[in-house]
Write the structure tokens for this entry.
Amino acid sequence: MQELIQDGSFVYIFLDGKRNWIRRVKEGEQFHSNKGIIAFDDIIGRPFGLRVQSHSGTVFQIHKPSQNDIQISLGRNTQIVYPKDAATIVNQAGICAGSRVVESGTGSGSLTWIFSRAVGSSGHVYTYEVREDMYLGAKKNLERYADMDRITMHHQDILDGIKEENVDAVVLDLATPWLLVDEVHRVLKPSHFIASYSPTIEQVMKTCKAMGESGNWGMIKTLEVLQREIMVRDNKTRPTTWMVGHTGYMTFARTFSVE
Amino acid sequence: MQELIQDGSFVYIFLDGKRNWIRRVKEGEQFHSNKGIIAFDDIIGRPFGLRVQSHSGTVFQIHKPSQNDIQISLGRNTQIVYPKDAATIVNQAGICAGSRVVESGTGSGSLTWIFSRAVGSSGHVYTYEVREDMYLGAKKNLERYADMDRITMHHQDILDGIKEENVDAVVLDLATPWLLVDEVHRVLKPSHFIASYSPTIEQVMKTCKAMGESGNWGMIKTLEVLQREIMVRDNKTRPTTWMVGHTGYMTFARTFSVE
Amino acid sequence: MQELIQDGSFVYIFLDGKRNWIRRVKEGEQFHSNKGIIAFDDIIGRPFGLRVQSHSGTVFQIHKPSQNDIQISLGRNTQIVYPKDAATIVNQAGICAGSRVVESGTGSGSLTWIFSRAVGSSGHVYTYEVREDMYLGAKKNLERYADMDRITMHHQDILDGIKEENVDAVVLDLATPWLLVDEVHRVLKPSHFIASYSPTIEQVMKTCKAMGESGNWGMIKTLEVLQREIMVRDNKTRPTTWMVGHTGYMTFARTFSVE
Amino acid sequence: MQELIQDGSFVYIFLDGKRNWIRRVKEGEQFHSNKGIIAFDDIIGRPFGLRVQSHSGTVFQIHKPSQNDIQISLGRNTQIVYPKDAATIVNQAGICAGSRVVESGTGSGSLTWIFSRAVGSSGHVYTYEVREDMYLGAKKNLERYADMDRITMHHQDILDGIKEENVDAVVLDLATPWLLVDEVHRVLKPSHFIASYSPTIEQVMKTCKAMGESGNWGMIKTLEVLQREIMVRDNKTRPTTWMVGHTGYMTFARTFSVE
């Protein structure tokens, strides 16, 4: 009843927090690292959750890629919204099975991926990206891992307008979110949430000010989330020495209705 | 196209972070607070996302209850897993539309509620509670808000065994999680996640030790999450003076397969 | 060789983090609390560091007031700079035995007290306060506990000018610190530190901008300090549930010389 | 009246947070870095707080070394107690001008240096180090910067006993602080503070347990301090991406007297 690794499966090859890879298994091929080689033929037909020894003696874990393994992989070499923040956005904006979500910019597609998993086949993610290189990169990324039936990609500047209406949530990761608060209010169901992610406090100030002045937004709040890892070792338990001290602020607000 | 408040609707009545209520609207009845009275007849037939003035002049916001409004409401008077931690568990354990999740203890049902929203109609939550008063209270809570087709409630000590098999995630909020690591391994799909939530570091140490000794768990890690609110006010922007400094530690690990 | 409690001694009476008092011992008098009465005659002639039982059975600790006991006591009913921040200012501004320090505003005198202890009899603290009620209150506070030979109190708006020159450090806890950066530069020794404490980020922005535009300041940096208490209890070790999430930002910079 | 850089002066040469050096100025010699050369003859006779351009065009700041510049410099290549923690220890243990302080281990001497500055010429620091290489290294370090009249260095294991009595504070940075709590109680004035610094929570647990069982310690508390830097830049203000997430826990307690 265990799921078996097959020719064509994606695998997550894990050594430690810094050395881990997602690879597509192919018959007759090998995974190469400076800690040794793993022949894919040695793992095909065996269940996920393996420990295998490379030819040079290092033990790797072979897992089925998790949602976050893929998210982090999508964002390699670009700036992604960290899992801690993606989790907060999904939670605070009430994104769940069945939600229809608008997002911009698509970026690497890593947040699109998380949302597409959260909304399921009964929901949908509409994502906007103005830069062609980003749009094409995200498209390739998402086609590799995601169920594209749940995702609509717009190669368009969201500042030119949102095509969808009556959506359950809008998530912005933009340089100038304050320019969009009226347009977002227009397309969002009453009492539903906007989530705006910004690295700097000036962006947050301008966005909150625009929301306040419009009079259309209630329960405006801004959060930041710090995540700390505890190294639990026999007689040596302690938090890790370094941690991420800042990624971005997240501003949430709820639409007032217009009667 | 806006959703209208009806006789029987749940509403979230918001004044500020400490003064807010979920109520069921009934024709001819009123909401009473020390900031004045709102007649439900005055809001029936109008869209969610309202601002209404009580007879004594205070403005209340009337929203459709969000996922987190309900979660927090369910946990009133008991100890709940905070949204920041619930969000981290859903995210790190990869719980999404379609997941089959085992949880214990049910407690107030607040985490069951969050999971039931995340898994959607194609997933399922199996929840265990040994204490009869908690079981009955959670049942009443969940029947009020949740889609019970997605939830199976066991009035049983999970230490006596898990009835389900081949599940996508197991979430423990128990006094002695270390006693369950073998049983959880038995019922969890390979490469899938256990999440264990514990307030004290001694619980975490024992759980990590039990996992390590079993040899069945990979990528064991323990996180804590701090959430900080920023008060964004014109020329007076600053984090809130008080914050929650600790709720619990969350330990995640991934099952190795048995060949 | 132990120091004994005498008629006229100050004592710190401690029950827990919230219930503690500094009192002056007087023959024939008593300390009253809702946890019972302690007769001062019962503790006179005994060493500090006592545990005594009130007539109603509660055990109080009787300590010699520490530097921080007194600092916190001075600030009761007003807004004080917390010990965590006072410590950071002393440390980062290099305030030590022998330093000559200018400070404004005096407020309750609680920071003046800390500085007067740090600089010792070979140093000096010059403190400015514009409000008469604050000036008089601080004077009374400081005369009660501090060595006034080390302290000069100015009942004056520091914006009208600093009387001292060639000082080792200047510490500002003011609404508009940016108005003072040139004046502070004038009186501070080259390569020495200004420390500016502000609750809001807008104050910090304006102060850093004024420093940058003047061209007179090097190594400008802004810190915030979070302090967390860990409750170490047998099998129940965990951080406290609530913590102070924000008090103020501290900006430090170092004077460039003028040739 | 400005202090001038002289032949033999120590200077702190600052480029940024990672590239900075303390050097002794010598006539006819030069400072070399990969950002260019500075001839000491070009700065001798000029005041501290200079900006000078290297031959290759980079601007360096030349400051008089501050207390923390020297502390950090002393600890290069070893594990030091960070300024944030040193500040907390000085503050919470009430170390000030005139204090007599016992410390162990000496390590690099960086904490000894901080204490020697805090206690001034009317106080004294007694420091114990069992390892000869550390003892000799710290001796060399301290003779370079500190006033040795205020410092007594013992090349001795503090577990063999403390030579001083009736001291104002004892600061431990040891692998096994719990073995010393009775000996420290013996030499500390009543109502005065022990401060114990430990990286792991198990060390803290054992130390608090030993204190509790001895019955000799009051007001036992354990703190950790997080320091965050805010980058204040025009329209780009935000905390730094990375921060130190853990250094050590600090346990403080106060001696009960023995009658």
